[in-house]
């Protein structure tokens, strides 16, 4: 064994969790190597938050995460919380601002966050190698882990899998971490694209195309879960924050329900309009609340035979049915845009086989899983990065 290629810890993946973990472990005095198959590290950080990286959220709670065992993320999230990461960002004098719902973004560029992580790695004298294909990983009790790669062989006492999820394959996402987990006897929970737009094959496809670019503040629900935010009609279907949030909870084949006027009792509103504006047309009254183009589509769907009928002539029962449709518009996505545009991967390495305190494998001593490869997925709004930081911190203390 050449000492030159032996490390205390090797981290597979130089993304958010891998770089953060590497810097912390290096600063603890460990000899750390990061291996990444991409040509550059931190690509997803750079594209995140529209280039401004929504790096955490002021209101992080375990309820913002999906995991088969909802208790699993609690320990890591409390050991390294959003305030600790904000403190680090402030130490680097990175200008940032809050957008809605406690979401924190860089003022200038996501590059600031990547540069901060790289500076932390430098402080820890971390070695980083890119364009590295890992061919095999094996473990021997005295030597630890041995990795045969396109850049030579490397060994280490600890191995951290931080290779992320499957979303955006063009940015270097691979299923390598999942395969490695299985190699060491870990089970995987089914993986699907999360935080992803919905697609449609029925009439909604045409409506979305025609309304492309329109954003509307709605409440969107599926099964027992609802979110209130903007929906965005696009050429491909429905997107926008409310859709991305709900996609984490949507099951293929299920309906979604859209309330177009979540602050109003729509039936009462329409009946009131009927008495106050007897000669008006329903579409003109609704256009005070919703974009005209959307109202025109809704008219075709829900009251075509009364399109040119004065309010006074529309039976109450019809207005009540229209109101029901506007407050609970039932839509059936044909699917999602998939990993091509998804922000995250749901499912992954089963947390039953990991320590919630250290992220260590219960099957293989010295093996750790952090970040998105683990079955922990956050809501939209900086929660996924906070999981990356928190799980990285947890592991870094125990390498
Ligand atoms: P991450 O994906 O960051 O890193 C994995 C690394 O492993 C990559 O560098 C990859 O090249 C490398 N790798 C993969 N396979 C490998 C292999 N076989 N060998 C070696 N290396 C390998 N979250 C959030 O909180 N706020 C936000 O604003 C956004 N915005 C956003 C936008 C877009 C477009 C996407 C796609 C995602 C987001 N996210 C987000 C989600 C966030 O980017 C994500 O949750 C974290 O980057 C996950 O961090 P990881 O370290 O787990 O993986």
Automatic annotation (TrEMBL):
Location of the RsdA/BaiN/AoA(So)-like insert domain: 193-344
Keyword match Transit peptide: no
Names of the cofactor(s): FAD
Keyword terms, alphabetized: FAD, Flavoprotein
Transmembrane regions listed in the UniProt entry: none
Boundaries of every RsdA/BaiN/AoA(So)-like Rossmann fold-like domain copy: 8-397
InterPro entries for this protein: BaiN-like (IPR004792), BaiN-like_dom_sf (IPR023166), FAD/NAD-bd_sf (IPR036188), RsdA/BaiN/AoA(So)-like_dom (IPR055178), RsdA/BaiN/AoA(So)_Rossmann (IPR057661)
Gene3D superfamilies documented for this protein: FAD/NAD(P)-binding domain, HI0933 insert domain-like, Translation factors
PANTHER family: OS12G0638800 PROTEIN (PTHR42887:SF2)
NCBIfam families, per the entry: aminoacetone oxidase family FAD-binding enzyme
Protein name from the UniProt record: NAD(P)/FAD-dependent oxidoreductase
Taxonomic path: Bacteria, Pseudomonadati, Pseudomonadota, Gammaproteobacteria, Cellvibrionales
């Amino acid at each position: 064994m050449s000492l030159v290629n032996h490390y205390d810890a090797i981290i597979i993946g130089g993304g958010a969790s891998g770089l953060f973990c590497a810097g912390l472990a290096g600063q603890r005095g460990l000899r750390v190597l990061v291996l990444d198959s991409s040509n550059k590290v931190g690509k997803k950080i750079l594209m995140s938050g529209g280039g401004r990286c929504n790096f955490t959220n002021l209101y992080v709670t375990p309820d913002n995460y999906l995991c088969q065992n909802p208790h699993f993320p609690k320990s890591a999230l409390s050991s390294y919380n959003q305030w600790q990461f904000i403190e680090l960002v402030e130490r680097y004098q990175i200008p940032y601002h809050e957008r809605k719902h406690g979401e924190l973004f860089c003022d200038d560029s996501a590059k600031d966050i990547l540069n901060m992580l790289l500076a932390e790695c430098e402080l820890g004298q971390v070695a980083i190698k890119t364009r590295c294909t890992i061919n095999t990983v094996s473990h021997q009790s005295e030597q630890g882990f041995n990795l045969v790669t396109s850049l030579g062989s490397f060994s280490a006492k600890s191995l951290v899998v931080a290779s992320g999820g499957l979303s955006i394959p063009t940015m270097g996402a691979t299923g390598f971490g999942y395969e490695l987990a299985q190699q060491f006897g870990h089970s995987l929970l089914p993986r699907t694209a999360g935080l992803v737009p919905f697609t449609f094959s029925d009439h909604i496809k045409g409506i979305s195309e025609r309304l492309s670019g329109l954003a509307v503040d709605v409440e969107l629900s599926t099964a027992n879960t609802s979110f209130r935010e903007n929906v965005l009609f696009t050429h491909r279907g429905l997107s926008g924050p409310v859709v991305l949030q709900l996609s984490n909870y949507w099951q293929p084949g299920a309906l979604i329900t859209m309330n177009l006027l979540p602050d109003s009792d729509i039936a009462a509103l329409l009946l009131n309009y009927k008495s106050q504006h007897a000669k008006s047309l329903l579409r003109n009254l609704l256009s005070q609340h919703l974009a005209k183009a959307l109202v025109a589509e809704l008219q075709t769907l829900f009251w075509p035979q009364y399109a040119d009928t004065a309010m006074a002539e529309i039976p109450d029962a019809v207005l009540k049915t229209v109101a029901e449709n506007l407050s609970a518009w039932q839509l059936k996505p044909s699917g999602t845009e998939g990993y091509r545009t998804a922000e995250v991967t749901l499912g992954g390495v089963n947390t039953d086989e990991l320590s919630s305190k250290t992220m260590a494998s219960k099957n293989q001593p010295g093996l750790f899983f952090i970040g998105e490869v683990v079955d922990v997925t956050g809501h939209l709004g900086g929660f996924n990065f906070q999981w990356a930081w928190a799980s990285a911190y947890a592991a870094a203390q125990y390498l």
